Amino acid sequence: MRKIEIYFLSQILKSFFLIFFIFIGISWLLQTTRLLNLIVVNKIPVFNVFILSINIIPNTLIMIAPFIVLISILLTCLKLFKDKELIASYTLGINYKIILRPFYFFSFIVLLSSLFISFFLSPYSYDSYKKKEFDLRTNLDIENIGLENFFEFNNEIIMNFEKEENNFTNLFIFQKNPKNNLIIANKTEMELNDNKLELKLFDGFKAEFKETSNEILVFDKYNFQLNLNKNEEYDNSDENTFNIIKLINDKNYLLINQRIIDGLLLISLIYLITNNLLIKLRFTNINVTLIIIISILIIFFDNIFASLNINENLKILFMYINILIPLMISLGIRNKRR
After folding, report:
1. Calpha distance 184→206 (Å, rounded)
2. Looking at residue 187, what is its pLDDT?
3. Secondary structure letter of residue 120 according to DSSP
4. What are the residue ranges spanned by the domains of the chain?
């Protein structure tokens, strides 16, 4: 690769990583706010929620990749034109094909990265996210829980306690099934095994409510067991967790084509921008605005076609035609000039 090509590639990468980290940062913050209820309601430690949020990034990246590529390539082209570097290159007799090579190389890397993320990395990380979120929502983590809170299990058990370092105090339990029990204890020792909570209660009382009478037991020490199983099973039917092996085994050719099209869409956007700006040097406000509008429409219709409830083959055809629009525009302009 020549020095001029390396220079142009470095300019592309600078713009790309700038936009990449801005978009990823904003998207990650927005996605993380959805997990705040794990901290507020379930009292899950912040660090655990932070690690959980990291697993969302690959899936989020697939959704925002078209906008990252669109803005970064457009920004690179505008910078090269504004700094007169494109004009200087053409004045020195450098062929436009040499200028386009770094963009072609970048397109190839973007395509491979998109396919790898969508078929392998994103399904793995998103499946990990779903499993961890399920475990955090359905299991009580005694060791890590840090704040007092009311916990409800199966609409049958309501429990509240305070934790001071490793000591559990002021325990409150209301049990609806199999009996209506109210338990209060000043001090508690807890041990959780297979979602069964073994309690050693000290200095409290237990009240059992019946239709005809109530029974109250005052105790200095009392052993009690609660089954906290929510009777829920992890559901891995989310298509975002399907890797290429599962898609092939399930013969889910629609989703395979959609993910391939998502990668080719990035190439389509790069071609639209470079063909109309770098080669022709048409950096007028109208032309740049038109390219942005066309690019956004291509991204918009890609999502619209993917969500249409029509024949799968017809849906795939529409999506492929949509990403070929930049090539059609280019061929139409050439035929018009002839």
Report:
1. 7
2. 85
3. I
4. 3-139+255-283, 149-227
